[in-house]
Amino acid sequence: MSSELFYSAAALILIAALVPCGMIATTIFGPRSKGKMKNEAYESGIGPVIGAVDQKFSVKFYLLAILFLIFDIEAVFMYPWAVAVRELGWFGFTEMVVFMLLLLTGLIYILKKGVLNWR
């Protein structure tokens, strides 16, 4: 057995043993705070909710979130392209133009369907 394999196996066993030991140690030696305020729900500074908690939200909120994600991921793909645009040459430029045209087509479709109208 090679020495690298032995050291890797030893490190894996050591990590597998130390993680549960650390969790047990924090349970035993960690601080405890009990009380009425500790067990209450806290939602961003809002006190306890009175009334129905299962409110129905409009589908438009979820649709807007999905659209935001789609067009936000567009920017994620554009940053590496912008860094490497000189190395990619005209082929990379035309591929990005095609990508932008596809996204523009999707945006025009969304606007034509009236998805962003909230009335």
UniProtKB/TrEMBL annotation:
Gene Ontology CC annotations of this record: NADH dehydrogenase complex; plasma membrane
Keyword check for Cell membrane: yes
Quaternary structure (record): NDH-1 is composed of 14 different subunits. Subunits NuoA, H, J, K, L, M, N constitute the membrane sector of the complex.
Gene3D superfamilies: NADH:ubiquinone/plastoquinone oxidoreductase, chain 3 (1.20.58.1610)
Function field: NDH-1 shuttles electrons from NADH, via FMN and iron-sulfur (Fe-S) centers, to quinones in the respiratory chain. The immediate electron acceptor for the enzyme in this species is believed to be ubiquinone. Couples the redox reaction to proton translocation (for every two electrons transferred, four hydrogen ions are translocated across the cytoplasmic membrane), and thus conserves the redox energy in a proton gradient.
Major place of residence: membrane
Subcellular locations according to the entry: Cell membrane; Membrane
Catalytic activities: a quinone + NADH + 5 H(+)(in) = a quinol + NAD(+) + 4 H(+)(out)
Keywords of the record: Cell membrane, Membrane, NAD, Quinone, Translocase, Transmembrane, Transmembrane helix, Transport, Ubiquinone
Segments crossing the lipid bilayer: 6-29, 61-82, 88-111
Protein name in UniProt: NADH-quinone oxidoreductase subunit A
Enzyme Commission number(s) of this protein: 7.1.1.-
Gene name, Swiss-Prot/TrEMBL: nuoA
Organism: Desulforhopalus singaporensis
Presence of keyword Translocase: yes
A single GO molecular function term of this UniProt record: NADH dehydrogenase (ubiquinone) activity
InterPro entries in alphabetical order: NAD(P)H_OxRDtase_bac/plastid, NADH_UbQ/plastoQ_OxRdtase_su3, NDAH_ubi_oxred_su3_sf
